[in-house]
Amino acid sequence: MGELMRKDLSADGLRGLAAANVLLCHLFLAFIPGGFAWIYPDTTTPDAMHGVVDHLIALPPLAVLWNGQFAVCIFFVLSGYVLTKAWLDTGDAGIFRTRASRRYLRLCVPIFGSVMFAWFVMRMGWSHAREAGALSGSYWLADFWKQPADVVQALRDGVYGTLFGGWSRFNPTLWTMKIELLGSLFVFAYRSLTLPGRSGVLNFAFAVAVLTWFFPHDWPYYTAFLAGSHVGEARLTRSRPLLAAILVGAVVCGGFDVSPWYDWTRVLPLADNERKAFFNVVGGVLMLYAVRCGVLDRVLQSRPAQFMGRISYAFYLVHLPILLSFSAWFFVALAGGMRLDPVAAALLTVPATFLVVIVAAVAFDRTFDRWGIRLSQAVFPAVSRRIPTAAVAGAGGLRRRLRYRRRRAAEPARRIAHSTESGPG
User: Is it the case that residue 7 has pLDDT exceeding 90?
Assistant: First the structure.
């Protein structure tokens, strides 16, 4: 039990660092956009800053630290792992039914709070994205919130539009929520139907083929859920050379961009966006496996990482409205009002933004995030009785299932023996 708990703590820490990665990506993309010419092309103006800091941000080995799409792929891989872990431990498919029933409310309530928070910031006129984007040269930043705040549209997005449509103009980073909802349901169904052994490999290949057919642009993201669930049952290793190679692979795949460094990946017949998503997912799978093997435990189980892991969902949901309002205002005040060097202003904006987002995320976690959990549990209470299932998880699950059947088969004999011994003589 202690070993399992250790791995869960590390996974939580990994989620927290991934959330910080997303914010760092958006801050650099907004205020030092020149460094993202290869990671996110067509997001900067011709007069964007191009200096030492930009080249440092664009350096592929380091870019993994602020490649937001890689962090999102880690979220998806982690979801597949965490949502199926209890089933791998118990073999009880009833867990899937309970979690699938709760999933919409669990995600929707915090999403509703996030959208309405963004609408309120827009309605109050607190956005400074255009001015900040003009100063930094970021097309990406200047393009936000050009339309007026419509409360009816905000309510629609918060209740169902974001989850079912995969987009919200109030908080565009919520494009991941549709994939999170559908990916969760897909992995529940997939693991309920998957057989162990060689048949499982064929089932995985068939599932990926189906996802590719129905989601030709987003199939790598959905595949991340399936792959993450298999990381939970993969055989772990303590080989340092192998773990070092896995970490290098995670960094290479996680730092993927369209620079000449990655021209070798063009052997895959995929468009740039799909190829980037594919390699980021592979990097996320490798990273999670390394974490399960105990790599980076000291970092991921530290108090800051664990704290970030606890508020990671709320942190992700509130960071963009704060960036478009407070961070943009802070940057404009430094670079425009005080005539500070734009790079220095951007570097000062980063810690200030992290502080404000953390405070907001703590408040959001204690309200909307917890309300979503409690409401989903109240509407769909857990089934107390264990429901036997034929679904098993690899060799370990098969052994548990066989022991269960042997115990059931031996019960009539034990009852007969008991009645013979204790009956009238």
Answer: no
